[in-house]
Amino acid sequence: MSGTGTGTHTRFVSTAVEPRERGREFGETWRQRVAATADGYRELFAHAGVRDLSGPGARALAAVEAWAPHLASEIRGIAEGAALPVETVAAVNARTEILASTRAGGECSTVVALRDGDEEPVAAQNWDWYAGLAANWLEWEIPHAGGGRTTTLTEYGIVGKIGVNDRGVGCLFNILHHRADTGAHGVPVHVVARRLLDEAGTVADGLRIIGGARTSASTTITVVGGRRAGRSAVAAELWPDGPGHVLPDPDGLLLHTNHFLSRPGAGGDTEPRTDPDTLVRYEVLRQALHGRGRDLTPAQALAALADHGGGVCVHAPEGRDDAFQTLAAVRIDFTTRRLDIHAGPPCRTHGNRTGANGD
């Protein structure tokens, strides 16, 4: 697979605040990495039977233009700066939609604990994806003309994914699969996450933004607000007829892996049949963290994500670029309203085998 390598934590701060100029600056700065990411996805798309990106890319760009024109401008700018066709960059942004029919097995695990008193929430996840794309992600800090800031962990050329903004609203990301999923004609879920981060001042704002997007592939975007934003969390399960919503349990704990937890989306969920590891990972986390929503510490959350039980912390076999691996463990720091990112499987830095009881 193109774009192979060992992931490291790269951070980039844009200077341009106008979307097209910001995209052009990004594309010029990271031209080789954007091209490598596009090459990697061309290979994955070809395995899924999609070899000509002009059609899917054009449809995705039209959907973004209609729903978030400033992000369509940014995608055009990235393409210009990276010297790539805009349809290619748009297709990379719609990679979830184009790959919706594939079944790879194993994916992301999310932990949120709202906590008590004056404590900020804990919100963390493992981002699991193809080992061959381990070098193709970064932390991107995005200033806005009005003085706001979006910070996101994303892939080179994709406008957003996991992140937090300066108002204390963050989001975590878990892919889903539904039998109603179709191709790249809906708003790409990565674009939904980015617009949420750019605009939301509360969790309710984020949910309204999500609810206004017509999507064609399924993903959970867990929206979390720090104390400044109301200290709450809701997992929005996007699917073509959704979204559905999942609330924390009575103790303030919210877990998600890669199967639907809400109705009616669960009725069309294909993941438990094709990739039942999602059920095992969810149960491993539930057993480790049940009743801890009021007092869970960041270290304890990351220790739970570092556990190999049920495949929570994922390692690809040697030489298997087409296998999944935990490319990064990410925690939203609501005190600083920034991301705490650990490249690679979290057992390397949070491998305390005492799991959720370690500090």
Main sheet properties: 8 strands, mixed
Secondary-structure element sequence? EHHHHHHEEEEEEHHEEEEHHHEEH
Oligomeric category: single chain
- Structure classification: alpha+beta
Query: What is the number of E strands?
Result: 13
The global form is: globular
Question: Mean of residue pLDDT?
Answer: 94
Question: What strand order characterises the main sheet?
Answer: 1-4-5-6-7-8-9-10
Radius of gyration from CA coordinates: 18 Å
Q: What's the total helix number? A: 12
Low-confidence stretches: 1-5, 352-359
**% residues in beta strands:** 15-25%
Brief write-up:
With 359 residues, this protein is an alpha+beta fold. The protein is built from 12 helices and 13 strands.
Describe the structure.
By secondary structure, the chain is of the alpha+beta class. It is 33% helix and 22% strand. It contains twelve helices and 13 strands. The strands form two sheets. The protein has an eight-stranded mixed sheet, with helices on one face. Strand 9 (232-238) and strand 10 (244-246) form a beta hairpin. The radius of gyration is 18 Å and the shape is globular. It starts with 10 loop residues before the first strand and ends in a 9-residue tail after the last helix. The model is unreliable at 1-5 and 352-359 (pLDDT under 50).
How are the secondary structure elements laid out?
Blueprint: E1 11-13, H1 19-29, H2 31-47, H3 54-67, H4 69-82, H5 86-93, H6 95-98, E2 109-113, E3 122-130, E4 137-143, E5 149-155, E6 162-165, E7 169-175, H7 189-199, H8 203-211, E8 219-225, E9 232-238, E10 244-246, E11 253-256, H9 271-274, H10 277-289, H11 298-305, E12 324-333, E13 338-343, H12 347-350
Parallel strand pairs: 1-4
Antiparallel strand pairs: 2-3, 2-11, 3-12, 4-5, 5-6, 6-7, 7-8, 8-9, 9-10, 12-13
